[in-house]
Amino acid sequence: MPGKRSWVARIVLFVFLVWSLFPIYWLLTTSFKAPTEVSKIPPRWLPQLDLSAYTTALASPDLQASLLNSFVVALGATTIAVACGVLAGYALGQLATTDTARYEFWVLTSRMAPPIAVALPFFLMFRVAGLQDTLVGVTLAHVVLVVGVVSWILIETFRGLPPALLESALLDGCSYASAFRRVLLPLSMPGIVGAGSIAFLLSWNEFFLSLILTDVDARTSPLALYQYVGFQSLDLGQLAAASCAVLVPTALVVGFFQRQLVTGLTMGAVKE
Amino acid sequence: MSDSTLRERRRSGGKRSSSRPPAAGRAVTAGALARARTRRLFLLPLTALLVALTVVPFVYTLVLSFTNMAPTEASLRFVGLSNYAELVGSREFWSAVRVTAVFTVSAVAIEFVVAMAVAVALTRVTRGAPLLRALFLLPLAAAPVASLFNWRLMFNSSFGLINYVLGVLGLPQPDWGADAGMPLLSLIIVDTWQWTPFVLVILVGGMSAIPADVYEAASVDGSGSWSTFWHVTFPLLRPFVLVALLFRGIDALKTFDSIQVLTGGGPGTSTTTLNYFAFREGISFLNFGRASAAAMLLLLVAILLARLLLRWLRPSKEEAR
């Protein structure tokens, strides 16, 4: 089959590649343009290397604070979700003796549910509990967002480990808990890293819950960007530079964890 | 590990291991107890988390949907189904349903057709396919607010790149923020950019699961490439197509970021989807009762679709029962 009519395939792929990457290219070139070139018509297509937008944008205390907040929240949400997910993965993927479909349906529901159904109660409860506009509050909300995906991947990971491992550890005198700690946990590391990186990415990119549950103090970086957009007078090159700064972690995750990203986003519908 | 050994193990565990040597019987029973105890213990944190962070909020939203909660109401009371009745009777609600339907159906359909074409094209090239697949993922992972802001600039009517290019090509330059239908079209375009990779990933995974000899048999039978696609590839791909459409469909229903950054639901209510409607009712207007009712309707759709999806994601479970 390959070879025959493959020029049509090449054209399709080329067009799709340009379509997918051009907006990202455009954002990058905009961020490296001199301030006078940014919104010029006709536009300057080829990149310049003017760093002034970056030096100004990255010096902004608001952006710095929001990047730090995002980092803390993403790390916190990831840790909580992965810790619970690993334990549940062992319980459901290795120890379960009966059908686990009902529990998994629950996990899947938390992935499918519209965030607005948790955002409204959180919005009300957080005010009463003093969690509005705090890092703890946003972190908890982000846990809701990532816990379904993370648990799903980890259940799959533990299910993928041969049952003989657990059996021989038990024969060697391990308890169920120590078999987990000494044998199965180390072997599930790739799944943990993958699930963790996706959780980090989802939390890092999250906008909706942060918009509702933070004001100033706990503002995450997507929100800081969004509030820049509100001020039309602001220099667009700086905005592009700030956007690129927010994009760096995502590019890294795609580069290193492509396979896990696919598994996580599709809830294991695709095995690569 | 194969599914059959998994089922074997489960069955033997479920029967308290009657297949084991009789001498080990008591130890195995004690082991089964310890196993059950450990399982419950290890499942506890996730269960607690899911109850506290999803079940409690959902129940709260459900209860709110039966109340008149809003800052304009003097006293909080139960109003039965009247929030739902009001929703179904209001013009805004049906406008939101219509916008949601148009947006979801057209975005998902376009994404599906494009992803299918690209997935087929990927099977025809011999070199570079893995690199291409990685590059195609970028729009999916890029921080939405950053990439959406970029799209907003490109759609700008006075200095945006899109209208400049349309002008150079001698094509009409619409006002993307105001002309009839254009704001919704711009949302669909952006959604296609961001989410086609997701559908693509599932379809590519499905195609790689089709054995090569199926194609060989088809070409021996003298089947042309178009008819091979329709009669061989597509039927075998069906479960993956269903999973892709379901996932994408439910996520499209929840679309928020692009609406908030690009159109704000406007002009008027022309780009206000049901999800955005619930957000605006609840967070901007503080009509918690009404907003909760709308959120519950969305949640109900999500739960029904999750039920359907689980059947395709975990087919072995159904067989094992």
From TrEMBL, chain A:
It is a multi-pass membrane protein. InterPro entries: BP-dep_ABC_trans_perm, MetI-like, MetI-like_sf. Keywords: Cell membrane, Membrane, Transmembrane, Transmembrane helix, Transport. Coiled coil: none annotated. It comes from the Bacteria. The chain crosses the membrane at residues 7-28, 71-93, 105-129, 135-155, 183-204, 236-257. Residues 67-257 form the ABC transmembrane type-1 domain. It is found in: Cell membrane. Belongs to the binding-protein-dependent transport system permease family. This is Binding-protein-dependent transport systems inner membrane component. It comes from Micromonospora qiuiae. The lineage of its organism: Bacteria, Bacillati, Actinomycetota, Actinomycetes, Micromonosporales.
From TrEMBL, chain B:
The chain crosses the membrane at residues 41-63, 101-123, 130-149, 184-209, 229-247, 291-310. It is a multi-pass membrane protein. The keyword Transmembrane applies. The lineage of its organism: Bacteria, Bacillati, Actinomycetota, Actinomycetes, Micromonosporales. Residues 97-309 form the ABC transmembrane type-1 domain. Residues 8-18 have a biased composition (Basic residues). It is found in: Cell membrane. It comes from Micromonospora qiuiae. Belongs to the binding-protein-dependent transport system permease family. The keyword Transit peptide does not apply. Its main location: membrane. This is Sugar ABC transporter permease. Pfam families: BPD_transp_1. PANTHER family: ABC TRANSPORTER PERMEASE PROTEIN, INNER MEMBRANE ABC TRANSPORTER PERMEASE PROTEIN YCJO. It comes from the Bacteria. Keywords: Cell membrane, Membrane, Transmembrane, Transmembrane helix, Transport. Residues 1-26 are annotated as: Disordered.
